[in-house]
Every structure is written in C-alpha cells, then in structure tokens.
TrEMBL record:
Gene3D superfamilies: Mur ligase, C-terminal domain (3.90.190.20), Mur-like, catalytic domain (3.40.1190.10), MurE/MurF, N-terminal domain (3.40.1390.10). This is UDP-N-acetylmuramoyl-L-alanyl-D-glutamate--2,6-diaminopimelate ligase. It catalyses: UDP-N-acetyl-alpha-D-muramoyl-L-alanyl-D-glutamate + meso-2,6-diaminopimelate + ATP = UDP-N-acetyl-alpha-D-muramoyl-L-alanyl-gamma-D-glutamyl-meso-2,6-diaminopimelate + ADP + phosphate + H(+). It comes from the Bacteria. ATP binds at residues 114-120. It is found in: Cytoplasm. Residues 330-460 form the Mur ligase C-terminal domain. Its cofactor is Mg(2+). The modification N6-carboxylysine is found at residue 223.
Length: 489
C-alpha cells in the first residue's frame, strides 16, 4: 500500500526520509521485529516486557523501509523513512484500519465487555444472526469464526492487526455483522484502537485480572474507557443491576440503553421457571423457553436480545431464534451418567462466576441431592481471588474438591494452600485437596450417588492443562466420560 494513503487521518509529529511519502510502498504492517519482511512498516511499541525501539536497527536489517516510533533513533539510515508519533500503540490501530481498508466501518461491529458472560453473549449473537440468515463473524475466547470458517482462538481480544485482517476477510465474504469480546487487556493495550463500534455491551464487573491492573479501580477504568471512546453514532447497553453499569455510561457520547432483571430498564427480564433442562423467561412481557439455564444466563440472553433489537431485528424472530439455541461450549454444559449423576462443566474461574453457577445449581436442586464442586485457580494470575473462591466453594457446596487448574509456572500445592486460606472454620470438614485434576474428578465420581450434582469448574471449553509452560491435553468433559465408563457409573 502507498504510504501517503496509509497515513490518512494519522497525525505525524516529524518525518525523516529522502523519498516523498507518495513514492514509498508498504508490503506489510508489523510490530514484532521477528515478522519483518522486505518493505515492511515496523511500529516500535513500548511494551510491558520490552521496548520495540530497541529492535529498530534489527528491523531495518531485515528489510523494513518505514519506521513508526515515539523516539527517533540516534542512527538514521538514508534508505528508510522515519515517522515520529506521540503514541505508537494508538497509531498502530489507525494504521491497521487503513491498511485493511477500514473494515469495521463496513460492518455492524458489536463489542461486549465485562468480567463474566462475554463469550456467551457474543456466541449467542453469532448463533442468533446465523439462525436469522445473516453471515457474521465471531471473535471470542473459544474460537474465531468468519462465516462458516472456524479459526482457533489465541487471545480473547487479538492484536489490532489480526483483528483488522479478520474483519477485512469478513467484509470480503459478505458478512454484515461482527460480534467480538472486548477484554480489559485489549482495551488497555489499544488493541481496539481505530475500530468503529456500532454497539457496545456491558455484562458485569467483579474482581479479576488484578495481577495486571493492580487495583479494582484501574480494572473498572479499563472497561469504562471502551464506552468513553465510543462515537455519538454508537449505542451503549449496560447492566442496570450491576452497580458499575451506570459508571460505564457516565462520559459516553453514545446513545444509552439498559437491561436488567431486578430494576426498571429498556430491556427487562424475569425468570419464571428454571431446571437443568432450561428456563421459562419473560423479556419485555413476552414469554419463551430456552435450553440455557441459570440466572446468569438470563442476563446473557437479555443483553443478546437487546443488542439484536437495537440492530433492527424483529422481536418475535429473535425470541424464536433464542428458543432453539444450544448451550455455549464449556458454559453450564451438562452430562448425565447412566447411574443418574448430573455433571455441570463450566468455565467459571472468578469468584463471581463460581458463585453464580453454584447459586444457579442450588436454586434448581431440591436439597436432597448433594452438590460436589471440583475447582482450582490458575497460576501466574490474580492471587487475590484464590481465598475468596475457597470460601465460596466450601460455603455453597456439600463437598468441595480443590485441585489444579492451569498452574502454569507455579507449584500447584502452593496455589491450593492459598485457596484453602479462605475456607471458614465451620467449613473445614466440607473440603479436600487433590492436586491431580483427573484424580480429583475421579474422587468426585466415586463419592457421588444417583441424583447428586458434580460441578467441574474453571476450564470449560479448554482442552489442555498448562504446567511449567507446557500445554498437556486435558478435557474436563472427556475425562468425566472416560472415568464414568471405567468406574461403571
């Protein structure tokens, strides 16, 4: 692409180069010096681990012809064009949009943020619009989808170059809509810079990612920034039952909408009946049945419903589509053994998510059945939630089995000790610890009797366990089925 065209609407503080911008052609846009090819434009980013400015010389040696940086290097190459900008990270977002033809302006791009529910809401929207006959794209924690093509997911919110690549491909095949999760990391690291969102949705916010954001206020601000930067043509839909829902709307220029189960809102819902097979719901005075279950899923469905209506879909068609949806992979998925034991596999890996799932199960069960909870906490992540999850699991279960999640580089037994620290004295007899996740699930099956409920929480859709930097195959659902067969239950 011609450099002059690539720089449209981008503010450059200083330019150094012998060629006119209109004479420079850019083959690739990169921010990783290892990916530089001949005639690349390399953007030097100041990261948390390393500074891309240190790799400018290496990038030029590999063929970069344009360098975008915040600080010009002391050594200037006459055959290279240098562009000094105020913020390389933000500039990259606008460069990526221009390079790929500003695809987010050619789509109805919907972003969903919040601690819990992002994957479910975006996946529900993708499935709703597919049912209604529309080609769409999905960018989620579980997978990326462009029409019928499925691409393995690497990040909840990919880097801004990859994002624009996928959105451009979506435009190319005729997609009208794109639904994406917007993580707090993605917002903080400018991975959505330069994108044009039609609708932004907020699910909820609870303690998470404090290893990265350091304080809860920083975490809230990261989410809020998404709404602060929306254009006045956009629509912001937030959860009125969450105390931070109104915070998200404080400074936004977007049109404001709300959804809620407990308070008055533009999109109001009620849970009329609930069991393991699904729920009878009422949205804006219309009753319907869904195979999804649990109050937290009522919120997820309500946000998806509100977004679909704001996009101009007919209410009766949306509710009909919702009523035939399947559960999202790894989100309150149920397995029933031949002996009548109910298993729930769920991705819940935050205190709030674990509490929501346990509360939902406790609302459904008659209390004659026991509730066994198998869970752990990920290593190298927010440690503050570990004791809180230990308290919640032992308080709301008949038996909690504390085990490994993805220990990563941490010692599993140390993670378990930090979880155990939150268990209240009156609940000491209600838990045990088994570091090996397969053995923990095996113990739950051995202990369970017909009609008992076993929640296996924390990994959901994941098919691996990361131990000391190595990913080993491990699938909770697969393990449950295998052990049930081996144990004859």
């Amino acid at each position: 692409m011609n450099l002059e065209k690539l720089l449209q609407r981008i503010q450059i503080l200083e330019t150094i180069g012998t060629l006119a911008l209109s004479e420079v052609e850019v083959s690739e846009l990169v921010f990783d010096s290892r990916k530089v090819v001949e005639n690349s434009l390399y953007v030097a980013l100041k990261g948390t681990v390393s500074d891309g400015h240190s790799y400018i010389k290496q990038s030029i040696e590999k063929g970069a012809k344009v360098i975008v940086c915040e600080e010009l290097p002391s050594e200037i190459n006459d055959e290279v064009t240098y562009l000094k900008v105020e913020d390389s990270s933000k500039t990259l977002g606008h460069l990526a949009s221009n390079f790929y033809g500003n695809p987010s302006q050619k789509l109805n791009l919907i972003g969903v943020t919040g601690t819990n529910g992002k994957t479910t809401v975006t996946t529900l929207l993708f499935d709703i619009f597919k049912t209604l006959g529309y080609q769409s794209a999905l960018i989620s924690t579980v997978e990326y989808r462009i029409g019928d093509e499925i691409i393995p997911s690497t990040h909840t919110t990919p880097d801004v170059i990859r994002l624009n690549q996928m959105l451009a491909k979506a435009v190319e095949i005729g997609c009208e809509y794109a639904f994406m999760e917007v993580s707090s990391h993605g917002i903080s690291q400018d991975r959505i810079e330069g994108l044009h969102f039609k609708i932004a949705g907020f699910t909820n916010i609870t303690h998470d990612h404090l290893d990265y954001h350091k304080t809860f206020q920083n975490y809230i601000y990261a989410k809020k920034r998404f709404f602060d930067e929306l254009e006045d043509s956009a629509i912001a839909i937030t959860n009125a039952d969450d105390k931070n829902g109104s915070v998200m709307l404080q400074n936004t220029k977007a049109k404001k909408k709300t959804f809620a189960l407990k308070t008055m809102a533009d999109f109001h819902g009620k849970v009329l009946e609930v069991d393991f097979n699904g729920m009878l719901l009422n949205f804006n005075n219309k009753e319907f049945w869904t195979t999804l279950t649990g109050k937290f899923n009522a919120y997820n469905l309500l946000l998806a419903y509100g977004i679909a209506l704001e996009l101009g879909m007919r209410e009766d068609e949306v509710l009909q589509a919702i009523s035939i949806l399947h559960r999202v992979n790894g989100r309150f998925e149920t397995i029933k053994s031949d002996s009548g034991i109910f298993f729930v596999v769920d991705y819940s890996h935050t205190p709030d998510a674990l509490e929501n799932v346990l509360d939902s199960i406790n609302e459904i069960r008659t209390k004659n059945e026991r509730l066994i909870c198998v869970f752990g906490c990920g290593g190298d992540r927010d440690k503050t939630k570990r004791p809180e999850m230990g308290d919640i699991a032992t308080k709301k279960s008949t038996l909690a089995i504390i085990t490994s999640d993805n220990p990563r580089t941490e010692e599993p037994t140390q993670i378990i000790k930090e979880i155990e620290a939150g268990v209240q004295p009156q609940n000491f007899s209600k838990y045990t610890s088994i570091p090996d996740r397969r053995e923990a699930i095996k113990m739950a099956i051995k202990f369970a009797e017909p009609k008992d409920i076993v929640l296996v929480a924390g990994k959901g859709h994941e098919t691996y366990q990361e131990i000391n930097g190595v990913k080993h195959h491990f699938d909770d659902k697969e393990t449950i089925r295998e052990l049930l067969q081996l144990m004859g239950k």
